[in-house]
Amino acid sequence: MSRTRDWPLYVVMAVVILFLLSPLIVVVGASVTTSSFLEFPPRGFSLKWFEEVLGQEVWTTTLITSVKLAVVSMAIATVVGIPCSIALARGDFRGRAAITAFVLSPLMVPSIVLAISLLIIYSRTGIDLPFWRLALAHGVLTAPYLIRTLTAALEQVDSSLEEAARNLGATPVGAWLRVVLPTVRPALIAAMFFAFIMSFDELVVALFLSGPRLTTLPMQIYGEIQYNLSPAIAAVSTLLIFLTVAGVLVIERVLGVRRLVR
C-alpha cells in the first residue's frame, strides 16, 4: 500500500533525473550525427566525428596538455594543502579564523579577478613560462578544494590516536603517516580528484595566462564553439564523459565510491 501511495514521488524523481541527464543525452546524440552542424536530434548515425577528433593532432595535443597541467596543479595543491589542513584542523592559535578565510578566499573571488591579478604579478616579475605560471595559478585555484575537504576529514579523526602513537615512540611525521593518513586517505583521494577536475576544466584563468604557445582542451573547445560549431565538439565532450565514467568505475572497484563520499 505504501508503494502505491509513493508513486508520485517516484515519478518526480524520474523526471528530475531525466532533466539532469538530458544535457548528456543531447551531447552524446549530437556526436553521432551525419550532419556537418551541431544539432539534435541527430541525422542518421555515424562515428566519423570521433575519427576526426582522434585523427587530428590538435585535439590529442591539447588533451595531453590539460592532463599534464591538471596533474602538476593537483600535486602543487596537495603539497600546499596537506600542511595547511593539518594546521587548521589541529592548531589552536590566534587568528585561525582569519587564516582559514584567507586560505579559502579563492573560492569566493571570481576567476576573472584572480586571473587579472595573477597576470599583473607575472608581467611585473617577468615570468615567461606559460605552462608553469598556469600550473601555479591552477594550484592556487584548486588548493582550497583540497584544504576544505581534507580539513573536514581531519577534524573527524580523534586526536588521541595520534597522541597514543607518539607516546609509543612515533615521531610527529611518523604518527601522521602511519595513523592519521590511512584514516583520511579516502578523503585525501577525493580532494585530489576535486583538484584534478577543477584544473582540467578551468577556462577563464587559462585564457589570460596561457599565451599563444600553450592551449588547453577547454580553450580549444571554446575556440571551436566560437568559429566552427561542428559535431566534433560533441564528440570530444562524449569522450570526456565516457572517460569520467570509466574513472568513477575504477575508483569504485579499487576504493569504493561510498568510502570517498564519506
From TrEMBL:
Belongs to the binding-protein-dependent transport system permease family. SUPFAM superfamilies: MetI-like. Signal peptide: none annotated. Coiled coil: none annotated. InterPro entries: MetI-like, MetI-like_sf. GO terms for biological process: transmembrane transport. Residues 63-251 form the ABC transmembrane type-1 domain. It is found in: Cell inner membrane; Cell membrane. The chain crosses the membrane at residues 7-32, 69-89, 101-123, 129-147, 187-209, 229-251. It is a multi-pass membrane protein. CDD domains: TM_PBP2 (cd06261). GO terms for cellular component: plasma membrane. Keywords: Cell inner membrane, Cell membrane, Membrane, Transmembrane, Transmembrane helix, Transport. This is Putative spermidine/putrescine transport system permease protein.
